[in-house]
Design brief:
- It is a single chain.
- This protein is 31% helix and 27% strand.
- The chain is α+β, with helices and mostly antiparallel strands and 98 residues long.
- The chain has a 3-stranded antiparallel β-sheet, with no helix packed on it.
Amino acid sequence: MDRSLLPIIAADAAPRGGVAYLTPQEAEVLAVAADRGRCGARNALLLRLLFQTGLRISEALSLRPSSLGIIRGIPILTVKWLKRRGKTKEEQYRRISC
């Protein structure tokens, strides 16, 4: 990644004891920087998907074309979510409007 494209991302943006989150502008800078090379479009789309939906990387990577649907004219992503209950994993699904 070209470091010259990242001047607006502050290294010390986290409040003391808190978590730093990317601003929409910072997320777009990362997506533009990732949009290079043979897999650039895929990488940029993945970064935008993660930022805009709040999906975990494992959830995003488990998406398939069949995960996208339309309910009452609204595009919907159906995401598989693994929930742990003790030693067992329980599959649940959640829907995210696009």
